[in-house]
Specification:
122 residues, mainly alpha, Helix Hairpins, 3 helices, 69% helix, elongated
């Protein structure tokens, strides 16, 4: 997936492609998490689709619900979705910052040509 310590640093163009790919993966995670929240609010609280979308987006963004919760099922769902949203935030941050972190570390661990280990004879 990522280049190893003994491989050269990726070109800027290839790194940009990697960033776009990882951003697309992060966007897919957000879309799935938001879709689950919308369906959950619609089913448990009988909210219209737009209100369910607003509540799910606000929870996923860390703001809190907009509409008051009336049912026990809705309150249980909202609490579970809030915990899930916190974990998703951390996962998305890892997906987005992973390539940058790897490139940063890789840049400092590349061995100069004169100090590179000899090729393995086997």
């Amino acid at each position: 997936m990522f280049e190893t310590r003994h491989q050269p640093l990726l070109s800027t163009a290839a790194f940009a492609v990697r960033i776009v790919r990882y951003a697309g993966f992060a966007l897919a995670i957000v879309a799935v998490a938001l879709g689950g929240g919308v369906i959950g609010y619609h089913v448990t609280e009988n909210l219209p689709w737009v209100d369910a979308l607003v509540n799910a987006a606000m929870i996923l963004g860390g703001m809190g619900p907009v509409n008051p919760l009336h049912t026990t099922a809705g309150k249980v769902f909202a609490s579970a979705y809030a915990l899930f949203s916190g974990l998703i935030f951390i996962a998305i941050a890892g997906v987005l910052f992973g390539p940058f972190f790897h490139r940063f570390l890789h840049r400092f661990h590349i061995e100069p040509e004169s100090q590179a280990p000899p090729p393995d004879p086997t």
